[in-house]
Amino acid sequence: MADENSSIIRVENVSMRFRMANDRVTSIKEMVTKMLKRQVEYKDFWALKNVSFDVKRGEVIGLIGRNGAGKSTILKIISGILKPTEGSVYRGGGIVPMLELGSGFDYDLTGKENIYLNGAVLGYSKEFLESRYNDILEFSELGEFINTPIRNYSSGMLMRLAFSIATVVNPEILIVDEILSVGDENFQKKSHARMMELMAGGTTVLYVSHNLDQIREMCNRVVWLENHTVKMFGDVKEVCDAYRL
Ligand SMILES: Nc1ncnc2c1ncn2[C@@H]1O[C@H](COP(=O)(O)OP(=O)(O)OP(=O)(O)O)[C@@H](O)[C@H]1O
Questions:
Q1: 42-76, pLDDT tens digit by residue?
Q2: Nearest CA residue ID for atom 30, ligand 1
Q3: Domains in the chain, start-ordered, CATH in brackets?
Q4: Where are the alpha helices (DSSP H) in the chain?
Q5: What is the pLDDT of residue 212?
Q6: Which of 8, 21, 96, 240 has a Cα-to-Cα distance from 136 of 20 to 30 A?
């Protein structure tokens, strides 16, 4: 049996380099020609430098930092969407990432079809999704719209669908990027309550927010990213107080 205090996620010396073309090209043809002639110059940009922290089973970890500090990038690496340039990530459980609105969805399919598509992408069986379908539909409050292609949904409706799928399946690890600040007030309250329920039930959560009050209320420990590296990691009050200064 797993040790209660064992790490479910370990981020070890992770660095991420994005390579960007320096030249401004006006067409794909020009780009290909330049690439073939090896005339394209690249500029390296390190979005993360030597980032390390661990997450224990059942913990709620807050991620804070100014715009561009690297929060979304580290979440994508932990989720396996991006591969780090250096370093490694250990994951000891199934992850449900809620990162970019609509990722994992097909806009030509209905809400219902997307529940099965998104659920399959996350690794859940058709039978399991069938058993959860009514709960997902009810939580999403989409009603008849569930049978409409999601390209007709508003961003709030998409968010409700994504949040409902991600949380009704009871993930081992839930990764949430600022989701609670989207949607109308009523759904915000409901999703906040749902997050609290999941946390009480032992789901490990990684949570990015610019709302320090929410971080203080929900998290066990906090990672503060600054200038693409960890500035501070640990006690919620200590890190949030230092960040506010
Ligand atoms: N695919 C990419 N190609 C090039 N640069 C990128 C790419 N993705 C992110 N970056 C850059 O990496 C840096 C970190 O971005 P990231 O989105 O992780 O920041 P963030 O802390 O989540 O910011 P915010 O609070 O604004 O969401 C930024 O400077 C961003 O421009």
A1: 888 999 999 999 999 999 999 999 999 999 999 99
A2: 68
A3: 7-244 (3.40.50.300)
A4: 28-36, 71-79, 111-121, 126-140, 155-168, 185-200, 212-218, 236-244
A5: 92
A6: 8
